[in-house]
Amino acid sequence: MKKKTKFKTTLKYNFINKKLNSKSLRKIIMILKYENNLSILANLSNKNIKKYLEIVVRQNNMELFVVNNPDLIGYAIIAQKPKYLISNFKKLQISFLLDLFSRLKFLTLINIFISIFNIDLLFISKKKREIINKSVNLNLLGIEKKYQGAGIGAKFLRSILKKTSYKSKYITCETNNNRSTKFYEEKLKFKSIGWKVRITCLVNILSRKIN
């Protein structure tokens, strides 16, 4: 039987609108690399992940949220629309591409180009593309391993939907494994609306109404 997680204090779900301290940055990067390890962001160096997170905090088209207990144990990044994920990536594209090339992350580089040129939406109908393009996008969500299974992720996302300043009919996210898909479908009532192409797999696109 899995031991029940004990929390030191009441969990706090916070929107971050100022520069993160070094401790919080290190913790987000650690969670990202363990829990979202197949994401493009996780394949960058720590230095470049830090740069990207700083962009997220500064921009009006993306938002960073964290869970504290009292230390940081989870994070989430959302975009006002999916297109802003690409536009913000392009702000540091030379640095990012050189980083990935120097570290031999060739599959990640191919996936970036697939995404930039919309090849990843090849099998998505026009109607579903419109939903995706107009939706708020949950880019990444990660909870520290030892705190998983206690319902934190679901409560975290519900809190985000209440606190975000973005207005849209839908929110979308992507999953690359059955465990994550099951979490979003069973705990948060997301539904699959199609598949994105990646060089090594297909990525499930999930959607639900915000209200």
Briefly summarize what is shown.
This protein has 211 residues and is α+β, with helices and mostly antiparallel strands.
Fold blueprint:
Elements: E1 12-16, H1 22-35, H2 46-58, E2 62-68, E3 72-79, H3 83-90, H4 93-102, H5 106-116, H6 126-134, E4 136-143, H7 152-163, E5 170-175, H8 178-188, E6 191-197, E7 202-209
Parallel strand pairs: 4-5
Antiparallel strand pairs: 1-2, 2-3, 3-4, 5-7, 6-7
Please describe the biggest sheet, giving its number of strands, its sense, and whether it closes into a barrel: 7 strands, mixed
CATH classification, class level: Alpha Beta
- Helix proportion range: 40-55%
Q: Report the C-alpha radius of gyration, rounded.
A: 17 Å
Strand tally: 7
Overall SS class: alpha+beta
- N-to-C series of helices and strands: EHHEEHHHHEHEHEE
Number of helices: 8
Task: Give the spatial strand order of the biggest sheet.
Answer: 1-2-3-4-5-7-6
